[in-house]
Structures are given as C-alpha cells and as structure tokens.
Amino acid sequence: MALLVRTHYRLARAAIKDNRTRSFLTCLGIAIGVASIILILSLMGSISNLVKEQTKEIGADLIVVRPSSTKDNLTNIVEELTSANSFQASNLSINDVKAIKGVNHVSAVAPIAISTNTVASEKNTFDSVPILGTNSDYVKIEPLALRYGSFLTNTEDSKSVVLGHTLSLALFNTINTTVGKSITIMGEKFMVAGVLDEIDKSINFDNIDYDNALIMDVSSLNKITGSTQIQQINVKAENTDSLATISEDIKQALENQKQGDKNFTVAYGDDITHPASNLFTIVSGMLAIVAGISLVVGGIGVMNIMLVSVAERTHEIGIRKAVGASSRNILIQFLFEALILSILGGIFGLVLGYILAFLLSVVTPFAPYISWHIIAITFLTTLIVGIIFGIYPALKAATKNPIDSLKHYR
Amino acid sequence: MSENILIELKGLTKRYGYGDTESYALKDFDLTIKRGEFIMIMGPSGCGKTTLLNIIGLLDRASHGEYILNGENVANISARRQAKLRAKKIGFVFQNFNLIEDLTVIDNVALPLVYTGYSKTAQLKNASNALKRFHLNEREYYLPYQLSGGQQQRVAIARAIVGDPEIILADEPTGNLDSRASHIVMEELKAIHEEGNTIIMVTHNPALTSYATRVINMLDGQIDTDVKTVADANLPQPISVKIKKRKKAEEPEIITSTEKKPETPEKNPEEKPKKHKKSKKGRKK
Question: Which of chain B's residues have a Cβ under 8 Å away from the Cβ of A316?
Fold first, then answer.
C-alpha cells in the first residue's frame, strides 16, 4: 500500500511538473485564499495578545465596573461598531465612584469619562481632542509614567490637567517647557500640571489613546461640558486573593446606591478583556468567512483544472486500466494530484500570508502572530479543500469506461 | 489434457441496446482455448472480434454466459478483481500501440508492474529486460513519438509481456504498420508464442494466418469456421509458474518443464532457462 501511495505521489508530481504554468496558477488561487486567512488569524492573534498583555501589565488586582445595557450581545456590538463614541450611554455617576470607595479592601477607584472637545493653547487650537475625566487615583491603577510635572492632585475642582506626549507636542511644539503653561477649554483656563511619557499603545482595554489625550478631573470635566457620562470605573483591590468577594461587595454597594438598578457589570481577571475580544472574534470571524470564500474560489480552480486534466488524459486512463489499474488506483492518482496542488498552494499561501503580516507590522503595531494552531488550521483546510474539490474529478476519472477511453484521442 | 485448458467460454452473449435497437455482438459463443495456442480471429468488421477480445481481456463483460479463466468463473467478478486479473494475467497489444505519450519508453513498459506491487527498481529492471529482448534497450529513455511505428509496437509488446501474463491479446497489432514492420512484429509474437505463451490475435490480414496454430473465422457474433493447424499435443508448453518462483536449482526446473511438455516442437530447450532467469530477476515482494 505504501508503495502504491508513493507511486501515485510520483505520478501526480510528474503530471504537475508537466503542466507547470497551469499548476502554478491553480496553486496561486489556493494561496491567495490561504494567505488572507493567515493574515486575518495573525492579526486577530496579535490584537488579542496586545490586549491580554495590557491587562497583565495593569495587574491581577484590577476590577472594572462597566455599564451594561439590557440589549443582547450582538446589538451591543453593532452599536459599538457604529456609534462615534465607542462607549455606550452610561448610567454610572460620580456618586457611584464614591460608593465604591466605601467598599472594604478597595485601595483605589478611578472613573473614566471620555469626551472630546476643542483645546487651545496660546499657539495652537485643536478640535476633537479626547479628554479623559478621572481623578488622582487613576495613576495608581494605570501604569502611566509622567515625563514632567505631576499627575492630578487629590483636591476636587482642581484646575490642573495632564497632557499626552503627542498632544503636548501639538499644542506647544515642545514637551519640556509645557508644565505650568495654560490652556483653554470651552472658555475655561486650565494649567498643565504634567506631561505623560510616550506610550505608543493605541490598543488597550480602556480604549484610550493616551498619547493624544488630555487628562483632567472628572468633576471639572463635568462642569465645563455640563453632562459627563462615566463609561467605566476602574477599581484596584488591596490584594488579589479575594477579588470575587470584593467584586460582590462592589455590586452590592452599587445596587444600594442606585436603588436596585442592575444595569452594570463588575468584571475582573480575563473577563475585563471580554467585550474587546468578543468584538474581535466577531469581526475577524466575518473576515475569515470572506477569506474562506476566496479559498472556495481557489478550490473551484483546483476542480476546474483537474476536470481539464481528466478530460485531457482520458486516453491515458484507458491505457492504465487496460494494463491493470483498478478504478481505485485511478481515483487515488487524481485525488493525489488535487491534494498536492492544494497543499502546495497552502504552503505558498502560508509564506505569502506571513510576508503580508510582516509588512503590515511595519506600519501598524500588530506583530505577526505565529502559532502551530494557525499552521495546523491552514494544513487542514487545504487538505479538506483538496479532497472536496478533488474527489469529483477523481471519481469522474475512475468511473471512465476503459474501452471508450481507449478510443479517445487528444 | 483438460488441465491445459486456459479459457472456456460457454454461451457467451453480448447484447447492445434494448428493444428495437437491440443487436448482438456475440451470440451464444462457445470457445475453449488451450494453453500455448496462437489463435487468429478473422472476420468482417462488426462480427464481434474486438468485443470478444475485450471480454476475454476483462475490459468488458458479457450480457450473459460463462467465462472460465484458469478454472475460475470470472464472468461476474467485481471490477476490482477484474483489474487485478488484467494486471497479472493479461497483456494487451493494440492496433494504435496505446503508449502513454508523456512517459518514457521504459516507464511505459513498466506500467503493468506499477499496479502489481513491484518496487521501482524491480519495475525498471524488468522493463529493461523486456526491452532488451526487442533490441530497444538503447531507446529506453526516448518518448514514444520519437520511435517509428514498428518500434512503438514492439514497446507495446514488451509492455504486454513484462508482467509474465498467461494470455496475450492482440487487436490487429500490424494494422498500422507497413509490411516490413509487420513482419518484425509477427516474428516477435511468434517467438513469444514458442516460449509457451498463449496468444489471441485479431487480424484482417489472411497472410498472417501462417503464424497461427488455430484460425477462427467469425460471422455475426458466432464462429463460422475453426481450423487447427497444429495438433494440441504439439503446442508449445509454458513453464509452470510455481517452478518459476523457485530461486535455486535450475536443473529440476528444466526437467519439470520438459516433463509437463508432451513434446518439444522445433525448439532448443536452452531458450527456456533463459526466460526463467529473466522473469525471476527483480521480482520482489
């Protein structure tokens, strides 16, 4: 049997070699499909890796309170995708922050309220600057490093703000003399208390681009904008052992505070990244389906070329049968040919996909993500594509009548 | 002598079409073929010669009737078993040679061995030996189109005998050849026959009947005349396959084979051991 397999392999290889251009183009069809799947899987892997690393950096003692809507998951995600602000209408308030502060074993509580506004310095004015409203606890929770100056002070109604690295450069064309200068938001004057170090991580579970953001006290933000919605409350626990009980306590405190309104979620550990990974999974799933369609097109290419090959080689099939090849021999011979074509295409696509992923990593922060899962998935899909699209031409070849085939000429 | 019967056809019928379009290529055809016969089948076009050959060659099936090959009724065996028997027991020679254009001469000759489980080395060794016999060993790596018609047909005959088949079926092997090439091909077939092989050949050329030991004239799917030119007792006898497989002791082989043979017609016994050696070489399991 092994010998026969080797023989079939040799025959198939010879047939592919004889029709080099044709085989190459067929492989290319498969390769493009595989490459797009690889690219998407690699992107997906690297994005979820980035997010996971972020939560790891923040630490295992983080608890996150988010508003939750009564809508189902999919509508939620569609809303997230379509709305300008990626957060949804929130029912969290500054009072909730205070309520959480009262819970035992909580060391720091910081709200996250994001809005955008026009920010002006004496030199430049910028529209739509993301403004993060929070409090002095924020720096205890987030690993934010200050380049110059200090973070927000503990007093409410403070008039100081912290600028992101890029924003500081944009507003004052410098970062080292920014501290102490003043900026104007909605007619109100604020003093720059500090400048953040460059972070260069636009993907994080808070959904904040720190380099371009302005950080100020949440109550000051509330004052200038009139209504501020808190989209998330980050809570740091005193220790990592009793996160479950602490989050239960937080839940209880919030329910009391909100008089039974349960439209919020308290998450810790891996659950924090869930909304993000849910979204990624759905988006990349959709993309993978689209890529899968191109793989199907590639598979049809294989089938087409195999049908041509079978038709061209009818006479050969007749001869092979006359000298003793069984239908199964012929079937395996042509199936092998299709499999080799699609697996070659798969290998080709794997390389192509990673070249594309690498090129993408040059311009984006998404490093190519290589894992044996991806390679196994590629191999399996090409194998399955090869079998599905190879079996029909192979059956057609195998069931040919030897007498009629012998009369057939090219 | 009954053990010498290779093929028995009983009431073989091949029908094409149904109802109004019904026609018979073979009708209640009875034929017994003994080992070592060289049968020429003649007759007008459409009398069922090729159909008969295809059925004997297990490429086709009769509508009904019995076909006993080597004592086994093979009329209703599975397609897979048919293929297996084709690979091991039957060698085909066609009018239009039917070599695979993309394969070299030696690969073409080795083709039947691919399906009978020979190693690649054994395949090439046996194919090379078969080609040597037809003085084509210098053309092993030519492609078929680079050879003349006569050479191509000799390659096809080499392919037919490479697996040591029991029957060689030839469908107008000289039909596409000029008289010189025809003569060479017929001499080769004659030599193969003299080694004890059974040959069934379809031809239109009455001049070739001198090579045969039995001439059958067919008409409308039935035997018209059946003439034996050589007595059964004088037929060349093949060497028993079992003895062939034995590795050692060449002398007993000759003794056994001559014992089996009632008579050795105009044939020097030294030729046979030569054939033993050849077929023994390279057969691997």
Answer: 100-102
- Indicate yes or no: CB of A323 within 8 angstroms of CB of B80: no
Phi, psi angles (nearest 5°) of residue B38:
-120, 100
The first and second tokens of residue A122, run together, are 């004496």
Tokens of B226: 């059946």
pTM, two decimal places: 0.69
B90 pLDDT tier (thresholds 50, 70, 90) = very high
pLDDT of residue A162: 87
Q: Are B98 and A318 inside 8 Å of each other by CB?
A: yes
Q: Residue B92 and residue A324: Cβ atoms within 8 Å? A: no
Distances (CA, A) of A360 to A46, A209, A233, A287, A352: 12, 20, 34, 16, 12
Determine the straight-line distance between the first and last CA of chain A, rounded to whole angstroms.
32
- Taking an 8 Å cut-off on Cβ atoms, the answer to whether B111 and A402 are in contact is no
Q: How far is A18 from chain B (nearest CA, A)?
A: 8
* ipTM, two decimals: 0.80
Angle, CA B191 vertex, CA B189 and CA B192 arms, to 5°: 65
Domain residue extents for chain A: 2-51+279-407, 92-262
CB of B57 within 8 Å of a chain A CB? The answer is yes
Burial of A72 (0-12, 13-18, 19+ CB in 10 A): exposed
pLDDT grade for A186, boundaries at 50, 70 and 90 = confident
- Highest mean pLDDT among A13-22, A122-131, A303-312, B236-245 belongs to A303-312
Cβ within 8 Å, pair B111-A18:
no
pLDDT at B146: 93
Where do the DSSP E strands lie in A142-240? Answer: 146-149, 160-163, 182-185, 188-196, 214-217, 232-237
What pLDDT, in 10s, does the model give residues B49-72? 889 999 999 999 999 899 999 888
- Is B119 in CB contact (< 8 Å) with chain A? yes
Q: Chain A: nearest CA to B121, how far in angstroms?
A: 12
Q: Using a CB-CB distance cutoff of 8 angstroms, which residues of chain B are in contact with residue A7?
A: 114, 120
Rounded Cα distance between B52 and B50, Å, is: 5
Q: Does B114 touch chain A (CB under 8 A)?
A: yes
Domains of chain B: 35-59+79-280 (3.40.50.300)
